[in-house]
Write a structure and sequence with these properties.
The structure is a single chain. With 308 residues, the protein is an alpha+beta fold. It folds into 2 domains: 154 residues, Immunoglobulin-like (Sandwich), CATH 2.60.40; 91 residues. It is 37% helix and 26% strand. The strands form 2 sheets. Strands 4, 5, 7, 8, 10, 11 and 12 form a 7-stranded antiparallel sheet that branches. It has a 5-stranded mixed sheet with strand order 1-9-2-3-6, with no helix packed on it. The longest helix has 37 residues. The mean pLDDT is 83.
Length: 308
C-alpha cells in the first residue's frame, strides 16, 4: 500500500513551475502599487517641508508723492466658495513708525476710502481726530465651485482714498497697503495691477485656490471610493456567476460598504455640498456600483443559497 503524501510534501516539479509563473505577475503588481504609494507619500512630505513662512506684502502707488501715506492693513479672514466671496478686514493707520506697523494714529483730516471689487463700491469714512475702527468687507470673486477640488477664484480689488467727505472733486490721498494672506485651507495671493497714468489708488488681482496637499487628499479619497466599488462588484459578480461560493459574512461587508462611501464623501476637505462635478463623475457611480454588488450577491444567495 502506498503511503499518502503529507501536507508538507513538496508539489511535483510539473506543478511548481506554473504556480511560480502565476505568482510573479501578482508580486510585480503588488510591488508596483507599493512603489506608487511610497512615491506619493514622499512627494507629500517634501511639499510640506518646502512650505515658505507667511509674510506680509506691501503695495504702494506708482506715482511718487511726498505726503505721508494712509496705511491700510488688509487681512484675509475667510474664503466662501458657495457665496463666491472673500471676507477681509481693513485696519487704518496714519503713523507706522511708532514701534508697530499698525499703530493707529488719528487722521488729521476727514478721509473717504473707496473699496471697489468690480461689482460693488463700498465707502469707509474716517473722521479727523477720531480713531479709525476696523472694517470687515465681503469681496466678490469669480470661479466655478463645481470644479472642486480644482476650483480657483479670481477677483479685482481697487482702493483709493480722498480727502473730505465727498468723493467728487476731492484731493487724492497716497496709500500704502499691507496684506496678510495666510489662511487655513486656502492659498490666497495678491498681485498689483497698475492703473493707467493719472489714475489714483491701488488695484490688486486676488486669487484663492486650495493647497496642493488638500487636492491630493481629495483625490486619495476618490480613489478609495473607486476601490470600494470595484471590490463590491468583484464579490457580487463572482458569486453571481458561480465562480465563488456564497458566504454569509460577505453580506455584512457589502452592506457596510454602502454606508462607508457617504462617510468618505463627508470627510472631503472643505465639505463641498452635493452637486459638484466630482459627485457626478465619482460618488454617484461608486454608490451605484456598491449597491449593484450587494444586489448581485443577494440574487445569487436567493437562487443557490442553502435551504432552511
Amino acid at each position: 500500500m502506498n503511503a499518502s503524501p503529507t501536507p508538507d510534501a513538496a508539489p511535483p516539479d510539473g506543478q511548481a513551475a506554473p504556480a511560480a509563473r502565476i505568482r510573479r505577475p501578482r508580486l510585480a503588481a503588488l510591488c508596483l502599487a507599493l512603489s506608487v504609494l511610497g512615491v506619493g507619500y514622499a512627494v507629500l512630505i517634501s511639499d510640506f517641508y518646502h512650505l515658505t513662512e507667511p509674510t506680509e506684502s506691501v503695495f504702494r502707488e506708482r506715482q511718487a508723492d511726498a505726503r505721508p501715506p494712509l496705511d491700510i492693513y488688509l487681512e484675509v479672514l475667510a474664503v466662501e466658495p458657495a457665496r463666491q466671496a472673500i471676507e477681509v478686514r481693513l485696519d487704518f493707520a496714519t503713523q507706522s513708525n511708532s514701534g508697530a506697523p499698525r499703530f493707529p494714529g488719528l487722521p488729521g483730516t476727514d478721509i473717504l476710502v473707496e473699496v471697489n471689487d468690480g461689482g460693488d463700491v463700498q465707502e469707509i469714512a474716517l473722521q479727523a481726530g477720531q480713531p479709525a475702527i476696523s472694517k470687515t468687507l465681503s469681496l466678490s470673486v469669480d470661479g466655478p465651485f463645481e470644479n472642486y477640488p480644482l476650483d480657483r477664484y479670481d477677483g479685482t480689488l481697487r482702493i483709493r482714498a480722498i480727502e473730505g467727505k465727498d468723493a467728487a472733486g476731492g484731493i487724492s490721498v497716497p496709500l500704502r497697503l499691507r496684506t496678510w494672506e495666510n489662511i487655513a485651507s486656502w492659498e490666497v495671493a495678491m498681485s498689483p495691477r497698475y492703473a493707467a497714468a493719472g489714475d489714483k489708488g491701488l488695484s490688486l488681482h486676488v486669487r484663492a485656490q486650495r493647497p496642493s496637499a488638500q487636492i491630493l487628499f481629495a483625490f486619495v479619497v476618490f480613489a478609495g471610493m473607486i476601490l470600494l466599488a470595484a471590490s463590491a462588484l468583484t464579490i457580487g459578480g463572482l458569486v453571481f456567476l458561480g465562480a465563488r461560493k456564497i458566504e454569509a459574512a460577505l453580506t455584512g461587508a457589502l452592506g457596510a460598504m454602502i454606508f462607508a462611501v457617504p462617510m468618505l464623501r463627508n470627510v472631503l476637505p472643505g465639505a463641498p455640498p452635493l452637486g459638484v462635478r466630482a459627485d457626478a463623475f465619482v460618488f454617484l457611480w461608486v454608490q451605484i456600483g456598491v449597491i449593484l454588488g450587494l444586489a448581485l450577491f443577494v440574487a445569487a444567495w436567493a437562487r443557490r443559497g442553502p435551504p432552511p
